[in-house]
Amino acid sequence: MAQLKILISGAGIAGNALAYWLAKIGHDITVVERFSSLRDTGLQLDLRGHGIEVMKRMKLEEAFKAKVAPEKGVQLIDKRGRRRAFFPATTTKDGVQNFTTEFEIMRGDICRILYDAAVKHGAKFIFGTSIEKYDDKGSSVVVRLANGREDSFDLVVGAEGLNSRTRKMMLGPGAKDAARPLDGVMVGYFTMHKPIQQGEEFLATFYVAPGNKGIMARRSHPETLQIYIGGKTHALDNVARGDVKAEKEALTEFMRGAGWETENILKAMNTDNDFYLERMAIVKLDRWFKGRVVLVGDAAWCPTANTGMGTTSSIVGAYVLAGEIGRHCGKGTAEKSDKSDAGADLDKALASYDAKFRPFMDQVQKGIGEGSDWGMSFMSTAFGISLMHIFVAVLAFFQVNIGAMVLKEQVKDWKLPDYEELNEA
Ligand SMILES: Cc1cc2nc3c(=O)[nH]c(=O)nc-3n(C[C@H](O)[C@H](O)[C@H](O)COP(=O)(O)OP(=O)(O)OC[C@H]3O[C@@H](n4cnc5c(N)ncnc54)[C@H](O)[C@@H]3O)c2cc1C
Fold it and tell me: What is the distance in A from the centroid of ligand 1 to the CA of 299?
């Protein structure tokens, strides 16, 4: 098949990674992003396992390392700020990454690294608009953008994150959305001005308070702290998504009096800043494509921050989708072959992407949002938290890898496919 004309909706992690691979092999790639410019904000993310290998295959290791966040590890503290346990960052000799990996990076930095790489290979970006509607004609998709532009594509990709609109359109009117909320679990992210004190290290500091409340403060910059604040509450159930003022008010009400540095952190939260609230939800779909429309990243399979695998899954999933398109449809630079059947080749590529990557995501998502909430109930009391401190201190004493224990990096019996089709331009 010759060059495919592909529209990717969403210039986040998954969208930019996919744009990079497909533009690199010569396809005609357009990315539409609803935001008016590249959304290079957000706090610290990491890559784990196969995500690290894919980043290396993208030849972005040097660019990544130049921006790596300097976090040295994570400490658990009590309400007086006393350290109860410490887990150091992974070093190259370790196997599975710890809570702090060797590949920590600010979301904005990785988003921009991927965007620059995609642009370098010829991907086009349109900011400030989104897909208003599309009509899947079978052999092409006619898309109307909110800016009034209409165009036809061989394939449309929804890479719009957790609350994907393309996913809703793909499922059709009246269909139940695939995002299943984690019963009131939410976290607010923002950056707080707090210069580093003498003797202070670049650490993540984790504090748990009774009533299913928690705060993590991460230092990756001498002038600022990254704050993650939240827990489990239904206080935000009636607050509209994106109403930042109301979200902050409800979160303040929920967190007030939680101990440690809570009051100072709430004060900083209630100023003008980059606050972003995530209402945690897992996305589960029986199929990630329908006709000529396919999903990738959180839009398709959001595993939640509880797995530590959101960014890795996006990068690996985008690689598998691009690889299957390369394998079944060829490069965009190839001569059109009389024997190729464009529609059938794309069908095979999408089916193969789904079949190959699903076992990976099934393992990552396993247990999330299922089963009982005993852990939450246990840690809702001061007594439960004290016992947890003792347990975690024992783990730290024996140098247990807490990342391997609680996160989902270890995907078993799944081999990262090799795609020689992605190797050269
Ligand atoms: C601003 C921002 C800050 C974030 N901060 C954190 C964080 O601190 N910690 C963390 O763990 N995760 C954070 N995330 C989520 C994290 O990036 C993803 O969970 C993960 O990397 C998977 O990436 P993704 O590409 O699937 O989704 P995302 O990275 O969420 O990217 C989705 C992109 O699609 C765009 N978009 C949404 N709807 C439309 C539409 N209708 N049309 C066109 N474009 C659309 C969005 O603006 C965004 O650029 C953040 C996401 C965003 C957008």
Answer: 9
CA-nearest residue for atom 2, ligand 1, is 42
Query: Which ligand 1 atom minimizes the distance to the CA of 131?
Result: 42
Which pLDDT belongs to residue 424?
63
Residue ranges matching CATH 3.50.50.60 in the chain: 5-68+105-178+284-370
> Which amino acid appears at position 152 of this protein?
S
pLDDT score, position 200: 92
The per-residue DSSP string of 279-337 comes to EEEEE--S-SEETTEEE-THHHH---GGGT-HHHHHHHHHHHHHHHHHHHH--TTSPPP
Dihedral sign, Cα of residue 125, residue 126, residue 132, residue 138: negative
Neighbours of 299 (CB within 10 A): 32
Q: How far away, in angstroms, is 269 Cα from ligand 1 center?
A: 21
CA of 78 to the centre of ligand 1 (A): 32
Residue 119 has pLDDT above 90, yes or no: yes
Most confidently modeled range among 43-47, 175-179, 261-265, 390-394: 261-265
* CATH number 2.70.98.90 given to 5-68+105-178+284-370: no
Pocket test for ligand 1, best of 298, 302, 368 (most atoms within 8 A of CB): 298
Instruction: Place 425 in a pLDDT band, splitting at 50, 70 and 90.
Output: low
Residues 137-183: tens digit of each pLDDT: 998 999 999 999 999 999 999 999 999 999 999 999 999 989 998 88
Phi, psi angles (nearest 5°) of residue 372: -85, 165
Q: How confident is the model at residue 371 (pLDDT cuts 50, 70, 90)?
A: low
pLDDT for res 160: 98
Element (H, E) at 108: helix 107-120
Atom index in ligand 1 nearest the CA of residue 13 equals: 25
